[in-house]
Specification:
60s Ribosomal Protein L30, Chain: A; alpha+beta; 8 strands; two-stranded antiparallel ribbon; single chain; 6-stranded mixed β-sheet; 23% helix; 2 helices; globular
């Protein structure tokens, strides 16, 4: 079984992909960037502000899938600049105060729309 998950409370896909796919007891969420779902624009601000918007987008998609941040088992964080790690990590830590998911963080050459951060997640459904 494979179900597409979509919500208007998070940015709509900007390419040929789904916000998330739910299947076999898991939710696989596509990488999210700092787009405000209210106006479909990249938010203004530094990596901390962008990280907060990304995590709110992920939270909305998880809710639409019947899951939540507490059920996330794995994240991947893509940073435009590893020098932003501490600022991203401080915001990230506010969303998972205890038992955070497994995570990888990598620096990449470029991200969609030249944002500073992108995060994808795998969660239990």
């Amino acid at each position: 079984m494979r179900d597409v998950v979509a919500t208007k409370d998070a940015p709509q896909a900007i390419g040929p992909y789904s916000q998330a796919i739910k299947g076999n007891g898991f939710v696989f969420i596509s990488g999210q960037i700092a787009i405000d779902p209210a106006n479909a624009q990249i938010i203004q601000g530094d990596v901390a502000a962008q990280t907060e918007r990304v995590l709110k987008n992920l939270e909305a998609i998880l809710k639409a899938a019947g899951s939540g941040l507490e059920r996330v088992v794995r994240t991947t964080v893509f940073l435009k600049n590893m020098g932003d790690f501490a600022a991203m990590n401080e915001v990230y830590g506010r969303f998972w105060k205890s038992a955070p998911p497994a995570r990888s963080t990598v620096e990449v050459a470029r991200l969609p729309r030249d944002v500073a951060v992108e995060i994808d997640v795998i969660a239990l459904a």
